[in-house]
Structure formats: C-alpha cells, structure tokens
Design a protein that fits this description.
The complex is a heterotrimer of chains A (548), B (401) and C (526).
Chain A: H1 2-14, E1 46-50, H2 66-75, E2 80-82, E3 89-91, E4 94-99, E5 105-110, H3 124-136, H4 152-157, H5 166-172, E6 175-179, E7 182-186, H6 194-198, H7 208-214, E8 230-236, E9 240-245, E10 259-263, H8 268-276, E11 282-283, H9 291-295, E12 300-313, H10 324-332, H11 336-344, E13 349-350, H12 371-380, E14 392-397, H13 400-417, E15 421-426, H14 428-436, E16 442-448, H15 455-458, H16 475-486, H17 490-508, E17 511-523, E18 527-528, E19 544-545
Parallel strand pairs in A: 1-10, 14-15, 14-16
Antiparallel strand pairs in A: 2-3, 4-5, 5-7, 6-7, 8-9, 9-10, 11-17, 12-16, 12-17, 13-17, 18-19
Chain B: H1 2-11, H2 14-30, H3 35-40, H4 48-61, H5 67-90, H6 93-123, H7 137-146, H8 153-167, H9 181-216, H10 221-235, H11 238-252, H12 266-295, H13 298-306, H14 310-348, H15 353-363, H16 366-394
Helix pairs in contact in B: 1-9, 2-5, 4-5, 4-9, 6-16, 9-10, 9-12, 9-14, 9-16, 10-12, 11-12, 11-14, 12-14, 14-15, 14-16, 15-16
Chain C: H1 4-21, H2 23-40, H3 42-45, E1 64-67, E2 72-76, H4 89-95, E3 99-105, E4 108-118, E5 121-127, E6 133-134, E7 136-139, E8 145-150, E9 153-159, E10 162-165, E11 180-188, E12 194-201, E13 204-210, E14 213-215, E15 217-221, E16 225-230, E17 233-234, E18 236-239, H5 250-285, E19 290-292, H6 293-313, H7 315-332, H8 339-342, E20 344-347, H9 348-361, H10 364-375, H11 379-406, H12 409-416, H13 421-457, E21 462-464, E22 467-469, H14 472-482, H15 490-518
Antiparallel strand pairs in C: 1-18, 2-15, 3-12, 3-16, 4-5, 4-11, 5-6, 7-10, 8-9, 8-11, 12-13, 13-14, 16-17, 19-20, 21-22
Chain lengths: 548, 401, 526
C-alpha cells in the first residue's frame, strides 16, 4: 500500500520536472487546452472564487503568501509562466529563449505584442528595472531567489537606507537589456530550475512610471497598471477583488473568462455554505467537520501539495534530545497512518521522509513505524521504558489541527515509550520568535516549497541556514547540498539530494517527518481548464465554464 | 457601495455642519427671544430624540447611499445636535459647567489613552516583521528602520504624536503594505457604523416597545413569553445565534445570502438582528423594570381614573422615568456593541473595522492598533458624555454628579 | 438608635425571606447550586477525562456504546499486557487483572477510492487518501467486497469478485451516471469474526489462542473489536450524551467545562469585587477631600519619572523611583509655604473618577486580547484580565452607594465616637454596600462567562500546563463547527449550549431576585 502511494507520487511528480538542457524552445502549444466546441460561449463566463484571505498586498515583488500569488497569476506575467497541468515553464512575456552551453547565460526574446494594461509595450528595460527595484526593496522577502544571478548576492548585501542608482546595478549585476526585446541574464552558476523561477511572483515586472508616481499605493485599483491577462478593476478591502480582461494582453483571444471575483472569506464554514448555495464556484478549503460529507461529493478535489509537515528537534540547547537514538526512537514510535487517517482525515499522505517527490526526485523511504524497535532504541540510549527521561514539551502555534496532531503524537509517545509529554502552544508571532530563539524542545513546523525543485526543501538543514532553527549541523550534508547547487547533470544532482535526505530521515533525525500536505477544496464541475497540480497554481487564462 | 454613502457625509464636511449646529444652538439658548431661540422652542422638537431611532431605521431602509437618504440622515443629526445644545444650555449654569468640564477633560483622557495604548502594544513579544521564512537580520533591521522602529521608544512616541496632531496622519499599516491607517479607517468604518446604527435602532425599537408592553401587562402570558425570549438572547453567545440564523434563513429558507456585504438592505438584516439581540433583550428587561416602578404610582392611577387613553399615559407620563435606566445602560452598552460587532462582522463577512482591530493585535500592526484605539476611545467618550447629559436632564437628582 | 452591625443582621434576614418568596430566584439558586455541584464532582460522576478520546470513534449520537478497548491492544506471551497510564476505569478493568480475556474481532482493511467516470465507463481511479492514482481495483474471494459510498456512508449491495480498471466497464449494482463515484473496498482477514482468548495469570500473559492456534504475540486495532469480555463480563463504554468529532465523551466535557466556566466567572468576579469595592468606597469616601495642586503634581511627576526610568532600567527601578519622589514630596509639601501648591485642584474622589473615565475609554476587549498575548494564556491571566474589565462599573456603583450612605446617622455616630478612617470604611461603610455588591456580582458572573466564550471564539482559549481547558464557551464554539450542513452532530452543540444557557438564565434570575429582595428601591437601576 505504501509503495503504491510512492509510485503514484512519482508518476505525478515525474511530469513536473523539465529538461534543463534546452537550447531553444518554440511557443507553448496551447491548442491542447482549447475547449472541445463552442458551447461555452452560450453561458456567462464569470468566475467567483474564495481566495481564503485578504491579500496583504498586490505588489508582486513583495508578496509572499499563496492567496496573493493566485491573484498575481491573473494580474501579472513574468518571462515564463506555468503549464497548468505539468507546471513546466512555458513562454510568457518571453516568446523564446536560448541557454548557453555552460548553462549560465539565458537570453530571452520578448514578444513584440506584449503590452501593459494601459497600452504601452512591455520592454526588457521594464524587467531590468523591476528586478532592480525588488533587490533594492527591503520589504522583498524573496530577494534571495535572485541570488542565482551573478553579483546579485553581493548587491543585496550592500543594501542600505539610501537607494543606489540603476546604472550601478547594471554594472555590478549580471543583467542586460541590449535592446527593447532582448533580456540577458548571467547566472553565477548553472541553476536547473531558473526558468521555473522566472514564472515566480518576485520576478514579475511592474510598471515603472506608476510605481515611481504612487509608491506603495500603486496597487490601489485607481492606479493599477499590470501586464497580466487580467487587470484590476476593483479592490474593496475585505470585500472582494474584481478583475476583467486586459484588453492589451498579447493572447487576448485565448482568454475565456470575462470577469473574475476573488473573495477573502477565511471562515471555512462560511466558505462551505457559500459554495453549497452556489455563491462561489471554487473554494480552497473544507472545514474538518464537513470532510466526510465533502469526500463523497463529486465536486470535491484533493491533490498532493508541495508542502511538508514535521516536528523540529532542538538538538542544540536541549540536552536530552542530543542523542540521535532518542530522536530516532521518537520518530519510530509515531504511527503516521493513524494521524492522517483518523485524526486529520483529509487525505494527507503519511510520510517518513521530508521532501516531496518533485522535479523527478525520489525521496528515501525513511524508517517505518516500529514501536518495539523504538522502545529498544530508547532503552539503549539509557532510558528503558522511558524511565529517567525528563518531561518532553511539544510546542506548536495555536490552531485546532496542530493541537489534534500534537495530542495524537503525545499519546503515542506516552503509550509506546512511556514518556511524559506536555503540550505548549502560543500565538503565531510568539511561536515564530520562540522557534527562532531555539526556546523549545520539540516544535511543530510546516514548509511549503517555493519552486518545483527539492532544493527549496533540502537547503533548510545546512549549517546555520536561516530556516534551520534546530541547531543541527552536519558536514557531509552541507557538502552534498553545496554540490547539488552547482551540479549540472540532473541524475547526479538528484542522487546528492537523495543521499542528503537519507542522512536526515534515516540517520540523524534533526526533524520528525509527519506527513505531506494535500490541497483540498470544492469546485463546480462545469468550471473547466482547471487542473490539479502539486503547487496548486491555476492560471486563469485557461479556465472557462461549460454549459450544464 | 454601501460604505461610500456614509463616507461622503463625512467628507462633505460633516464637521463643519455640526459646528454650525452647535453654534446655532448656543445662540438660541442665550437669546431665547431671537429668531433661532423661538424656532427651537417650538413644541415639535422635544419629540425628536424619541423619534430618532424610528427615523434612523426608516432612512436606512430607504437606501442610505442615495442623496435623499444622506440628506435626511444628516438633517436628523443636525436637528438632534441643535436641540441638545439648546436644552443643555437652557438647563442652567450647573449643567453648563458640567458639560464644559467634560468637554475640556475629554482631550486629556484621549491623550492618556493614546499613551497607555502606545506602550501597551509594544509590550507584547514578537514584532510586526517576524515571519516563518526568516529574513536576514540586516534586512529585518532595514525594514524596521523604514518604519521607524529602530528609534528609542520615546522618540517614536514623539514622532507619532507630532504626525497625529499636526497632520492628522495616523501612520502606515505595517501589515497591509501601501495602505495607511487613514485609508483603512475610511474603507472600513462605513459598514461598522451602518451596522451599529441599524442595530442600535433595532435595539431601541424592539427593546423599548417589548419592555413597555410587558410592563403594562405584567404577569400576563405575553410578559412571560417575551421575558423568556429576552433571557435566551442574553444567555447564548452571538457566535452561536448568528450561524443558527444563517442556517435557518440563508441555507434552508434561502431568503438571504450566507455572508457578504453586496446587496443593500438584504445583507444588512441578519447581521443587524444578530448584533441587536442581546442588547434588545437587556433594554427590554430594563424598560419593563422601569415601567413597573412607575406604573404603580399614584399619579398614573389618577390618570387612568380620569379615563385617559392608555397610549397617552404611556407616552406622556411614564416614558421619562422608564427610560432612565435604559439611558444609563446605553453608554457602556454602545461600547460593548462595538466589540460585539467584531463577532458579527466575522460571521457575516462584513468588511468592518472590528476585524481590523483584533487582527492588528495579533499582527503587531502598531499604527493600526493605536489609530483604532483612538477612534474607539473617542467614540466611547462622546457616547458616554451624551448619555450622562441625557441622564442628568432626565433625572434632576443626579445633576450635580 | 440601632448601631450599624445590628441593623445589618436583621436586614439580611428580611432579604432572605423576600428572596424565598421569589420562585424564579429560588429556582435559579437551586439550579446554580446543582450545576456547580455536578461540575465540582465531575470526576466522580463520569469515568472519562474530558480530553480522552479515541479518534476512530468519531462523532456518535447520545446513547452510543462500544467495547471498552484501547486504540491499540498489545499482548506478548510472558509479559504484562501493555496498559497506558491514564485510561478510563472500565477500559482498565477490561484488561487488568488475572483471568480470561476474550476478544471478538473482525479484522479488515478499508480503502476509499474515487472513480472518475466518462460515458458510463471508468476513466481513472484514485485513492482518496493522498489522491494517489491506482491502476486497478481487484476484489476476489467471498469475503472481500466493493460497496458504493454516499455522503451518509456505505450504501447499496456488497459486490464481490470485481475488477475495476481504467476504461473498464462498471459492474452491476454500481450506478454509471454522473462523473464521480466513491467506493469503499473492504478486505476482511477472515470471512467471519473470530474469537481470541487470552489467559492472564499473576499479571502476565499466559497464553494467546486465536482460531485454534496459539500465538506468542498479538496486535489488535481497537476499532475492529466487536466485543470484549473479561472473566465472562462484557466491557462496554456508554456515552450518555454522545461523542464529539474526535471521540471524546460529551457529558464529561460538559461537566468539566462547567468547572472552567464557573471558576472563571467566580474568580474573575472576585477580582472585580475586591478591586471595585475598595476603589469605589475610597472614591465615595474621599469625595470631598481636596486634591491640591501640590499633591497632584507630585503624583504625576513621580509617575512620569518612574515610567521613564522603568523603560531604561527595568520596572523595579521605576517603581522605586516613583515611590521615592512621591513620598518625599508628600513629606515636604506641608512644610512649603507656596500658596499655589495648596490650592485645591479638585477632590480626590473626582480624581479617582476621572481615572475610571479614562480606563473606560479603552476598548476593553482589545485590552484583554493584548494581555492574553503578552502574558500567556494561563488561567490566572484570564482571571485577572476579565476581572479588570468589569471593576469599573462595580466601582461606580459602590461609590454611589457610599455617597448616599455617608450622610446616614450611624456614620456620624461612628465618627463622633472617634473611629479612624480605616475603621469607618471597612467596618461600617463597606459592609453596608455588600447588598448592592452581591447583586451586581451575581449579575457579573454571566457577563464574564459570555466574554470568555467570545475569547474562545477568536481562538484565545484558556490553557494550564499546556493543556487546553475547554470551557462551555469553547465547547459551544467547537459544537458549532462540528455541525454538518444537514444538522448532523447536533448533540455536540446542543448540550454545552443548554448547560451554558440554563446556568446563565439561573444566574440572571437569581441576581434579579437578590436585587428585589435586598433593596426594592433598586429596581430599575442597572
């Protein structure tokens, strides 16, 4: 059963990787996504969906959350965009590109007919200025994604209160705009997923004149100018966001939806009720009490999501977690199937490994549930039957599901290992601070991947990594990750990742993997052009409504 | 949209109109023989405060956002202010001095309030820029510098006060980039105000009439029935009653939408009822109690013996005494209603200001928290003042506070 | 002339008599007493801890009963059976001790599948869990079967011997219209339930017999046990009010929840009373005592200085500086001869009331939320935070009482007989306000319980030692979230709401009755 799941995951994931050695590519073939006939024209093409929360901002350079990203897919477009089924990078503003043989130089050729929503053409200078602006903006949390570009890391380090001029940026960073329709990027080292990154929100262009005039208020609907398939018509905070076709979009004829309304309802019960009453066509969550009902509803969808749920161990300052046998015992004493099947019941995938299968990667199997072996290990470490082991504190941020999981895990540790466990929870900001300061013993954690490559998960555990927060350090692991960063051969790269992850989930256990996230929600059947994929990215230009 | 109606009233210079109303009222009081004095002394006007809730409801139902609605609402408010000013002044020196003292004290209270909140919000651990995907400490410092968080506390405090008093600028929001606190208040105050006003009108209407009837027909079936309903309204929390109403009226009967703030006045009904219920219940009980106290007095029996119709007795003789406890309740009651509105806003998806307030605490969005505290504090102060004045006018015993 | 204390006693007796006559109030008193007793003795009344739950049970209606088993049963020959520390007594009894243990189990493996249909044929098959695609479903043998799943559970015939695969036809008995079909595949280990017999002697497992063969170890999933008997006696657990979504007993949660709600109500009210009474009495007593400019500026100056120092060098230093400045100022002032400093600014009573005005202007819920975030979600913080919110009204009321009491003759008499300020305050004034205080305290408790439920609604539940203590408000919130669209799981919402409503009703009736009994003139003032 477990192997079947693994194979199945690989099957899905294998479609997610891309060939890194392309030298040139033709325009993305969208014919496969056209509706079968013209019947869709007879029904209104207005989508209302629940985006789950009010976006913090609509500025693609500084946005960080999933709801914001979903809107960015409609309102902005980068050099590349995503194939809705496979998530492969397909031509966006760039109609074709060439990659140098050393894998470090990308030359993008922009479309002649790519335009902003006010009719002005999108030029390579727009990209140059937008990327410069993002790297000069302290509020840009994802600036580190630019570090693949030659000189970007050093540039960002020199960030200060005063803004540096564009000319200096062009000199020091490997970006060039030799003419209006050519954009050249020089990377510091080959990056297997750079094209994927170009579709990411931080890399999307913004309209220079508008931003310079209105500063951060440029995202208000009165001021908005964007280059995506849809434009911002109205943003009434906490009420709705309304988008309509961008009349100057280069592929206007392909767009079928005429109006998109995004609602910020974060109460899952409320969203559920709205869906049942058909006040929305697509919701992105299901309240836990309604899961059984939802699963039997044909409009329910559940898809694996690029995210991992796990517990961190404080190996640095917590003395009784320093012995890796104890950590291994704690991991083997947890029956993940019980947690996902009985406690969460939303179809999450129990996992003894950490990194999801993405970009062609096969995660190692990890160590299966084995309470007897766990007990033996604990005894070996000097705590037979849990005797003498101090009370373990399990820390998580306040949320119903986290509490249920923690209670389940604590129960298993008590029953299987004879340990004493208490639970501690804190409000989100307090929790973040405590984890950062290593003020915990075992802490709940979740990690969503930023792009379709194992690097976004596995680079967390390098020594001193900003998101490590466990105090764990392993020379061989660091070595493997560093190698994977610059390795060009995809096969060898994935092998490095595999070996590195095996260190984490089969040997050292700085973390306790629990499960892989799934995405679930409801979508009306007649909404087509909407495909399940592991990153829950749904470009709106492919969607349309069929008649009943 | 719904919000724009109220927003426009504010923007049209409601302040200026109010000030002129106060001035006219003063003029009328000090020159009772002058043109204004005689106008305001007409017997029609004392009924205004009683008609206020009724007319508010009427105006709201007639689509508040139209010019007619806005005009009617502002006319009522102005009349109310005129009448109040004149009445207050006409009550004599003691009352004038009392009101003046309260008015002078108000800014002091606000100042202390701002100071306390300023330091209190910064007490909570965790800052506005702590995130799960950790930032470089240098970058975090830069961001904090951008928003002035690196300065010593008293400097931040000074800057904040200066911006507030000189420019009326409440600062940028830390969480919602690109929006200032003034923006947030402007966007969200409309729905909350509308909801609150509607709920207030409903509370007074339903509560007072139910209580009056109960008091008149003491110990009858109607009395027990309505008092039990009132009890239920008091004993169940809003976040239970609200979804129950949604389940019944929106899901099963399909009369209303589940949530949202799109169609007026349909989307107003369920939230307003949910918000008004506990307060209407309390007002009903208070009115009934007050009614019982008054109705058994001698002069009422005399009036009854004289053969006066029941309604006249109620309206003319008993109302003042009955309403005393209701008025006393209103002050703190309105403050509670503001917090209650948070729950209602969450359940019904009303884009109001209560939500922003609570989230600003969890997000450590200091300017929003401060700005909204000032807003609410001012509101509460004004309501308390109005209520105390009304109470003092209704009950001569308390005049000297 | 009656002396103060004597008058008080007969007042109480009068009041009690009046209260007894009020049927509603007495009813309220009895109900409150009953509820409190039930909550207090909850641990004797129900065998379950409020957070003990077997997740596989899910939500079940009132009266549900099931075999008394653990989630996982482990037996090894020659060892003691595995028995975790905190489990309900009936479960312990069903395993512990010497004798014969018999399990009737029907082990099976259940899997749920979602089939995408196209034109009456199978297009694709996926497991619901993990959304993993599957090539085919093969079911053979007389005891394995496939059954259709509807939103209410498995329906329709059990279909044996099928093969379902992509682009395959659907067997008879399964509907082929529609685009999605949910299936349950059950693979039982044995065709019929089997009996397992375990002999325990001297605390250790002697033998394990399963279907005729002896085993050395046994691992059972509790969910698949149909019956358990120990020495012939069947072990079953009954949930009188049903279970919630994670299998916890509703009755015990309601009773234990009562502890939390009532404790919060009572103790926070106590805080309110303590602070409010003292403050209000002082404000009333000092209503005429002048506050001179000198004293006021000393106070403000000390406060500001202490605050500034506090931010630099810590709160303790700040307090000490403030105290030092204030004390020295108060000592020095009478010796100074500046007439300006002597001018009365206002009265102390007025000053205290101004402070109340300021505090009233703070939106209190915001304050409570801030306090909870800053100081943790400990139950002690909650007591203090909620209590601090209500004391303002209490202080106002007590002040009003004291103001009117001050003029009475017995106070004059006490003053003339040389009683000091403290004595007058604490022996004469405050006891005579107790009537009012009790009334408002009784009416404050329900308000606090409702406020706590509001906090639970926004997620700030009470904690103690890392465990969440679910009050009625928290239970009601969970109940509302457990409700399905068709009104299922109603018991999870109904019983806590009922408990809360009935208790609040009774408290309100009691408070009303007390008010009528203690001072009929108070009617109408709130």
């Amino acid at each position: 059963m477990r192997n079947l799941a693994l194979l199945a995951l690989l099957a899905i994931a294998a479609c997610g990787g891309g060939d890194t050695k392309r030298t040139s590519v033709a325009s993305g073939d969208k014919r496969a996504f056209l509706p079968e006939d013209e019947s869709w024209k007879s029904v209104p093409q207005e989508l209302i969906f629940n985006n789950q929360s009010e976006p913090e901002t609509l500025d693609p350079a500084i946005m960080t959350g999933v709801p914001e990203h979903s809107l960015a897919l409609a309102l902005c477009e980068g050099l590349t965009s995503h194939d809705p089924r496979t998530l492969e990078p397909v031509p966006g503003v760039a109609e074709r590109w060439e990659v140098g043989v050393d894998g470090k130089t990308y030359t993008f050729h922009l479309r002649a007919n790519a335009k902003w929503s006010n009719g002005e053409p999108v030029t390579s200078q727009d990209f140059l200025w937008s990327w410069y602006r993002a790297m000069e903006e302290p509020d840009c949390d994802y600036a580190y994604l630019f570090f693949y570009v030659d000189g970007a890391s050093a540039w960002r380090e020199g960030l200060g209160a005063a803004k540096r001029p564009l000319a200096e940026f062009v000199q020091r960073v490997g970006l060039e705009a030799p003419d209006e329709r050519t954009f050249v990027v020089r990377l510091a080292a080959p990056c297997a997923y750079f094209l994927d990154l170009c579709a990411f929100e931080t890399f999307m262009p913004v309209h220079r004149a508008t931003v310079e005039k209105h500063q951060l208020a440029w995202t208000q609907h009165a001021n908005w100018v964007g280059n995506g398939p849809y434009r911002l018509v109205e943003w009434s905070p906490r009420q709705h966001i309304v988008m309509a076709k961008n009349p100057h979009y280069w592929d206007l004829d392909f767009l079928k939806l005429t109006k998109i309304t995004a609602l910020p309802v974060d109460d899952m019960d409320q969203a559920w009720n709205k869906f049942l009453k058909r006040e929305v066509h697509w919701i992105r969550s299901v309240p836990s009490a309604k899961i059984d009902e939802a699963k039997r509803n044909p409009e329910y969808f559940v898809q694996p999501y690029l995210g991992s749920y796990f517990y961190r161990f404080n190996v640095k300052t917590c003395a009784h977690l320093r012995d890796k046998r104890v950590r291994m015992a704690l991991s083997m004493a947890v029956n993940r199937e019980t947690i996902t099947r009985d406690i969460l019941r939303a179809g999450q995938i129990p996992a003894e490994w950490f990194c999801p299968a993405v970009g062609g990667y096969e995660p190692p199997k990890g160590l299966a549930y084995n309470p007897d072996a766990a007990r033996a290990l604990l005894a070996e470490a000097g705590y037979p039957g849990g005797e003498g082991y101090p009370t373990l504190t399990l820390f998580f941020n306040t949320q119903e599901d986290h509490k249920k999981v923690a209670e389940g895990v604590a129960q298993m540790w008590r029953e299987n290992l004879g340990l004493q466990v208490t639970l501690q929870n804190a409000e989100w900001k307090v929790y973040l601070k405590q984890v950062e300061l290593l003020d915990y013993q075992v802490a709940r954690a979740g990690w969503i991947g930023d792009f379709g490559d194992p690097m976004t998960f596995l680079d967390m555990w390098v020594t001193g990594g900003g998101n490590n927060n466990t105090g764990w350090s392993h020379a061989r692991y660091d070595e493997l990750i560093a190698k994977a960063r610059v390795e060009v051969d995809p096969r060898r790269r994935l092998d490095y990742f595999g070996e590195a992850e095996r260190i984490v989930v089969e040997d050292e256990f700085p973390i306790l993997p629990l499960y892989m996230y799934v995405n679930q929600g409801m979508k009306v059947d007649r909404l087509r052009g909407w495909y399940e994929n592991i990153r829950d990215l749904h470009p709106f230009q492919y969607m349309y409504f069929e008649p009943e | 949209m719904l919000a724009s109606g109220l927003g426009e009233v504010g923007r049209i210079g409601g302040g200026g109109l109010l000030l002129s109303a106060v001035a006219i009222g003063l003029l009328a009081a000090f020159r009772p023989q002058g043109r204004f004095g005689r106008f305001l002394a007409r017997p029609l006007l004392p009924r205004v405060p009683l008609a206020l809730p009724l007319s508010l409801l009427l105006v709201l139902l007639c689509h508040f956002a139209t010019p007619l609605g806005v005009g009617a609402a502002s006319a009522l408010v102005i009349l109310f202010v005129l009448w109040t000013t004149r009445e207050v002044v006409a009550q004599g020196r003691a009352m004038q001095r009392y009101v003046l003292r309260r008015l002078i004290g108000a800014p002091v209270v606000l100042f202390v309030l701002v100071t306390i909140t300023f330091f209190l919000v910064r007490l909570a651990p965790g800052g506005p820029f702590d995130k799960e995907k950790r930032l470089d400490p240098e970058i975090q410092e830069l961001v904090e510098e951008k928003y002035g968080l690196h300065l010593p506390l008293h400097e931040q405090y000074g800057r904040y006060l200066r911006d507030l008093l000189w420019k009326g600028d409440l600062g940028p929001s830390f969480k919602h980039k690109g929006r200032t606190v003034n923006d947030i208040v402007g966007d969200h105050i409309g729905p909350t105000a509308l909801l609150g006003l509607c709920a207030l009108a409903l509370t007074l209407l339903i509560g007072i009439s139910a209580g009056l009837l109960s008091g008149l027909k003491q110990n009858s079936f109607y009395d027990y029935a309505s008092m039990t309903v009132a009890m239920v309204g008091l004993a169940l929390p809003t976040f239970v009653v609200g979804p129950m109403l949604v389940l019944l009226f929106a899901m099963k009967l399909d009369w209303f939408a589940v949530s949202g703030w799109e169609r007026f006045p349909r989307d107003l009904v369920l939230p307003a009822i949910t918000l008004a219920l506990p307060f209407a219940a309390r007002v009903a009980r208070l009115t009934r109690a007050g009614m019982l106290e008054v109705v058994n007095q001698d002069y009422i029996r005399t009036a009854r013996a004289k053969g006066l119709p029941e309604l006249t007795i109620v309206l003319r003789h008993t109302l003042k005494g009955t309403l005393l406890p209701v008025v006393a309740f209103l002050g703190p009651g309105i403050a509670v209603m503001l917090t209650g509105s948070l729950v209602v806003e969450m359940i019904f998806g009303v884009p109001g200001i209560g939500r922003e307030f609570v989230e600003s605490a969890t997000n450590r969005d200091y300017p929003v928290a401060l700005g909204l505290t000032i807003l609410f504090g001012t509101l509460i102060l004004v309501m308390n003042l109005l209520v105390d004045v009304a109470y003092a006018m209704l009950d001569p015993r308390i005049r000297h506070g | 002339m009656d002396s103060g204390p004597g008058r008080g006693q007969s007042l109480w007796r009068d009041a009690w008599r009046r209260l007894r006559k009020n049927r509603f109030a007495m009813g309220g008193l009895i109900v409150v007493g009953l509820v409190s007793a039930l909550s207090f003795f909850a641990h004797l009344l129900v065998p379950f801890e409020p957070d003990y739950g077997q997740p596989w049970l899910l939500a079940n209606p009132p009266g549900f009963s099931h075999p008394a088993v653990l989630a996982e049963l482990r037996f090894d020959r020659g060892e003691a059976p595995v028995l975790p520390a905190s489990i309900p007594a009936p479960v312990r009894r069903s395993i512990d001790g010497d004798g014969t243990l018999e399990y009737l189990v029907h082990e099976y493996a259940d899997t749920e599948y979602r089939l995408k249909l196209r034109k009456g044929r199978v297009e694709s098959i996926r497991r619901t869990e993990g959304a993993a695609p599957v090539e085919a479903i093969r079911v053979s043998g007389s005891h394995e079967f496939v059954q259709r799943l509807s939103s209410g559970g498995p329906v329709g015939p059990e279909i044996h011997d099928v093969l379902l695969e992509g682009d395959g036809a659907l067997p008879e008995g399964l509907p082929s219209d529609g685009s999605i079909l949910m299936l349950l595949v059950r693979r039982p280990r044995t065709p019929e339930p089997e009996s397992i017999r375990i002999e325990i002697s001297q605390g250790k497992v002697l033998s394990i017999q399963r279907g005729g063969s002896a085993l050395d170890r046994l691992r059972l999933e509790g969910r698949q046990v149909l019956r358990v008997t120990k020495n012939g006696r069947e072990g079953r657990l009954t949930h009188l009010l049903g279970t919630d979504l994670v299998g916890r007993d509703v009755l015990s949660r309601v009773l234990y929840g009562g502890r939390i709600s009532l404790a919060v109500g009572a103790i926070a009210t106590l805080v309110t009373v303590l602070v409010g009474v003292v403050y209000g009495a002082l404000a009333g007593y000092l209503a005429r005592t002048p506050l001179r400019w000198g004293g006021a500026s000393a106070f403000v100056g000390a406060g500001v200085a202490g605050l500034l120092l506090g931010f630099r060098a810590g709160m303790a230093a700040g307090w000490m500086l403030a105290y030092a400045i204030f004390a020295s100022a108060m000592l020095a002032l009478p010796r100074m001869s500046l007439p300006l400093l002597r001018r009365p600014m206002t009265t102390l009573g007025e000053f205290l009331m101004r402070i109340i005005d300021i505090l009233e202007a703070i939106p209190y819920m915001f304050l409570v939320i801030l306090l909870m975030i800053s100081f943790g979600r400990d139950i002690m913080t909650l007591f203090i935070a909620l209590g601090l919110v209500q004391w303002l009204t209490m202080a106002r009321i007590v002040r009003g009482q004291v103001l009117s009491l001050k003029e009475k003759e017995f106070i004059e008499a006490a003053e003339m007989s040389g009683a000091g300020h403290a004595a007058i305050l604490f022996r004469h004034l405050i006891p005579n306000t107790l009537g009012v205080v009790i009334v408002y305290a009784t009416l404050t408790v329900p308000a606090i319980i409702l406020q706590e439920s509001f906090l639970a609604f926004i997620g700030l539940t009470v904690e103690s030692g890392g465990r969440t203590l679910d009050s009625w408000g928290s239970l009601v919130n969970q109940g509302r979230q457990s409700l399905t669209s068709s009104g299922g799981n109603w018991w999870v919402l109904l019983f806590p709401s009922l408990a809360m409503a009935v208790t609040l009703f009774s408290l309100n009736f009691l408070g009303d009755g007390l008010r009528d009994a203690l001072d009929p003139k108070l009617k109408g003032r709130s």
